[in-house]
Amino acid sequence: MSDAVSDDNSTVVLTDVTLATMVAGGQPYGLIEDGVLAISGDRIAYAGTAADLPSRMQSWPSESQHGMLATPALVDCHTHMVYGGNRAREFELRLLGASYEEIAKAGGGILSTVSATRAASEDDLLDAALPRIDSFIDEGAGTVEIKSGYGLDLETELKMLRVARRIGRERPVRIETSFLAAHAIPPEYKGNADGYIDWIVREILPAAASEGLVDAVDAFCETIAFNPIQVATLFDAAVKLGLKVKLHAEQLSNMGGTALAAGYKALSADHLEYLDEQGVEAMAANGTVAVLLPGAFYTLRETKFPPLDLLRQAGVPIAVATDCNPGSSPMFSPLLAVNMACTLFRMTPEEALAGITREGARALGCLDEVGTLEVGKRADIAIWDVETPAELAYRFGINPLARRIFGGNV
Ligand code: NIG
Ligand code: FE
Q: What InterPro entries does UniProt report for this protein, alphabetically (predicted)?
């Protein structure tokens, strides 16, 4: 990030706006009343009080925001929004008493989405995913992470990642991809998880990486998925390719995956309901972000809470995301994730909003570009028809977005 922005021919000054800059360390929410935002090209040229607007920007065209609130465009750092089919039947089964693990062991769950995703063409997957991303954009998202992981074979994993990249070309949104072939054991490798990891490392990951489809490598460390040794084998391969890692860890049980991931300087460890103190310390020591996913907690009616107080005390950065997926979190609303992070996990509205802006960006390794309203960052901005930032966390089922600016374009 540069600290100065050269004037672009497309400049605008947004006046009469309250800024929740989400810059840490000062006012709560980085709040600036009587604020002004100046945009030059795709960059923020000024974010501060009206009184201090640099004189050369005072002649730029201006637009009043009528006292509304500006935040960074939202950053959802954990979704699985490219998939075929849906899992409404599984939802019914769970309400008739089956557990998420039982359904997975019986070949349903993730594997039922795998069958539908393999059967779908690239265009079908794109057509199904566009309304999903639109619902995020309509709620002010500017950056969204999308994982593979419903292919579990060479062809379909690459197909999913190509669709994720195409979403970023078809819609005004930045997409970060995560390679999640180690999400479940495919039917072809039943009872042979080691063999599947070997195939991923030898063929699938190198192919995906060489096509430029992988921004980070993810895995699911769990009794119904992969153990820490298998995850380490995958992470070693990722490191050799120069790729960052992250992990679904401690969601249903404590496998020690978080500490392992932190040892690889993982960008994030996600879910974390069963995380222990040792895992928290490992995250703190390595700068690994804790990504909390209240939609999955809610859908699975989990009763064990992620150790929020331990994470706070250790100073671990905490992000919040939707986990948008067809099974454990069929949620298409980032604002609902913010509300649930407060109501279910007892995060403060400031923590939750930071979790889906600044900390979400940190979890994706793109805090230099997005996540706060600061000079030099991308002009990805959400303008809300609310008076205070806490209102974004407090209501649910209503969308107060007035306008979204993406790369300087309304
Ligand atoms: O983040 N935990 C594993 N993966 C997903 C669930 C995916 C699915 O059920 O389809 C999650 O919750
Ligand atoms: Fe997930």
A: Amidohydro-rel, HutI, Metal-dep_hydrolase_composite, Metal_Hydrolase
Task: Report the nearest atom of ligand 1 relative to the CA of 252.
Answer: 2
ipTM confidence score: 0.94
151 C-alpha vs ligand 2 centroid, how far in Å? 15
What are phi and psi for residue 197, nearest 5 degrees? Answer: -60, -40
CA distance 66 to 247: 43
Percentages (nearest 5) of helix, strand, coil residues in the chain: 40, 25, 40
pLDDT, tens digit, for every residue of 36-85?
999 999 999 999 999 999 999 999 999 999 999 999 999 999 999 999 99
CA proximity to 393, closest of 334, 321, 323: 334
Supply the DSSP symbol for 368: T
Distance 364 CA to ligand 2 centre (A): 14
Q: Which helix (H) or strand (E) holds 234?
A: helix 228-240
Closest residue by Cα to residue 76 from 31, 143, 126: 143
Which domains, from first to last, does the chain contain?
Answer: 11-72+372-405 (2.30.40.10), 74-364 (3.20.20.140)
CB 69 within 8 A of CB 18: yes
What pLDDT does 108 receive?
85
- Please report, for the chain, how many H helices and E strands are present, in that order: 16, 14
pTM value surpassing 0.95: yes
Q: DSSP letter for 388, please.
A: S
Does residue 199's CB lie within 6 angstroms of at least one atom of ligand 1?
A: no
Q: Which residues in the chain come in under a pLDDT of 70?
A: 1-9
- What would you report as the CA-atom Rg of the chain, rounded to the nearest whole angstrom? 21
List of residues 6+ apart from 144 with CB closer than 8 A = 75, 76, 79, 81, 133, 136, 173, 174, 175, 176
Ligand 1 atom nearest residue 109's Cα = 9
Alpha carbons 356 and 342: distance in angstroms, whole number: 12
Complete DSSP assignment for 122-184? HHHHHHHHHHHHHHHHHTTEEEEEEE--S--SHHHHHHHHHHHHHHHHHSSSEEEEEEEEETS
